[in-house]
Amino acid sequence: MEFGFGGMIERLKKEPKSIVYTEGTDPRILEAASRLLASNFLSPILLGNPEEIEKAAEDNGFNIRGARIIDPANYERFDEMVDLFCELRKKKGVTPDQAKEILKGSNYFGTMLVKMGEADCLLGGATYSTADTVRPALQLIKTKPGNSIVSSVFILVRPSATGENEVLAFADCAINIKPSEDDLVEIAGEAANCARIFGVDPKVAFLSYSTLGSGKGEDVDKMRNAAAKAKAKYPDLPISGELQFDAAVAPRVAKTKCPGDPVAGHANTFIFPDINAGNIGYKIAQRLGNFDAYGPILLGLNASINDLSRGCNGLEVYSMSIITAALA
Questions:
Q1: Which helix (H) or strand (E) holds 247?
Q2: Backbone torsion region of residue 235, taken as left when φ is above 0, otherwise alpha when ψ lies between -120 and 50, otherwise beta
Q3: What pLDDT is stored for residue 110 in this prediction?
């Protein structure tokens, strides 16, 4: 829990936030909420039936006294929420009756709480898919000005021999299946910004099965072109590509394959050509490299909304809560 969390918590103590959890009865959510309630930097908002939430907390031995519980079936600003929802979805011709039905879903209801300023950020997905977290965010929160896509990054952390933590950023491993060159440029900029929040001085490698022209093919061309576009768009960011993974991280290999390259051998922010490579890559690092993986952290949205892995535990929910609030 150490690496960048101390700094994030200190920032949040100066400017406390509120976080809405879409699955208020889930024991992992309740565990994280009880930990947060014992501190003073992040206020949990639990969605669901209050009696069911309190019973689930009691059954699992978690103290959630002081938590704000909002029941979507009995919310005092519901009519206002329905009106705003219809306004936001008017191009789709959504009627008030349709809006009421959609807002029964805690993923949509929770996203609207963020839109209405009732909560600073949202964490969901302990029991449902990434798509069910991302879809309401895309429809209601939308992408930041200048961004055309939502993407994601995993932050990978492991203690190193020096006692410092080794912190890496992997993108995009969860959202964009086959990103275009321009998508990859946007992913790189967002991933580098996120890496900085975790104390990383980003050095960005666009990964491929080729190093600076050693291999051929349209996939190689895509990564080389994306790296060139990213260098032009972010002139102050150290970027290289296309690079094989060994050339990106091993100084000895970099010396042979691309001598003098400013990033090769020292990269810490990795841009993968597609979701296959990214998802497999981060899981290999997590399972065989003993890295802790935090994410997927969603990037490019107008508000901080994040998705949990369905296999998460209470500590991971707590960690992702701090990350989500720090990004808000």
A1: helix 245-249
A2: alpha
A3: 96
Inter-residue contact 147 to 186 (CB < 8 Å): yes
Mean pLDDT per 10-residue section of the chain, whose length is 328 residues: 70 92 94 92 94 95 94 94 94 92 93 96 87 88 92 90 86 95 98 91 97 94 98 97 96 95 96 97 95 90 90 88 91
The residues near 323 (Cβ < 8 Å, ≥ 6 apart) are 8, 155, 294, 297, 306
- Alpha-carbon span 283 to 304, nearest angstrom: 24
What strand order describes the sheet that includes 151-159? 239-243, 204-207, 269-271, 165-171, 151-159, 292-299
The pLDDT, as a whole number, for residue 1 is 40
Q: Please give the angle made by the CA atoms of 170, 172 and 173, to the nearest 5 degrees.
A: 80
| pLDDT value of residue 160 | 77
Beta strands of the chain (E only): which ranges? 17-21, 42-47, 68-70, 121-124, 151-159, 165-171, 204-207, 239-243, 269-271, 292-299, 304-307
Q: Which residues contact 186 (CB under 8 A, 6 or more apart)?
A: 147, 148, 149, 151, 300
The C-alpha atoms of residue 178 and residue 181 are separated, in whole angstroms, by 10
- Are the C-beta atoms of 19 and 45 separated by less than 8 Å? yes
Q: Is the peptide bond before 273 cis (omega within 30 degrees of 0)?
A: no
Quote the distance between the C-alpha of residue 51 and its chain's center. Answer: 31
Comparing C-alpha atoms, which of 1, 58, 49 is closest to residue 313? 1
| pLDDT at 2 (0 to 100) | 47
* E-only strand ranges, 2-41: 17-21
SS3 assignment, position 259: coil
Q: 78 to each of 74, 113, 115, 151, how far by Cα in Å?
A: 8, 10, 13, 31
pTM value? 0.86
Q: Are 51 and 21 in contact (CB under 8 A)?
A: no
The label of the residue with tokens 């930097």 reads 41
Question: Would you tell me how many other CB atoms lie within 10 Å of the CB of residue 86?
Answer: 17
